[in-house]
Amino acid sequence: MKCDIKMMLKAGAGLAAVIAVAYATFPAARELITALAPALFFLICPLMMFFMMKGMHSCHKEQETTQREAPAVPLSETSNIVDERR
After folding, report:
1. Which residue ranges does the record annotate as region Disordered (predicted)?
2. Which residues contact 40 (CB under 8 A, 6 or more apart)?
3. Cα diameter, the chain
4. Domain segments of the chain: what residues?
5. I need a surface site. Which of 5, 11, 29, 47 has the fewest CB within 10 A?
């Protein structure tokens, strides 16, 4: 997966809205918010990639659990099945 321009613009707009709300809500932290905002915009793509990868791993775990729950056929039974087909 890669960061396409549409997703980056949506994330940038969302981040701008969060920063604007935080700036208006917390007047005591305005200097900190102003100092961190450019760094957050610079880190949008790596942060999005991190969260996408975490999301992909959670789907992978669901598939692993369904595969593990399937009953395993012993090796001796599989060799009998192959012999019967011949």
Report:
1. 62-86
2. 15, 19
3. 81
4. 5-70
5. 5
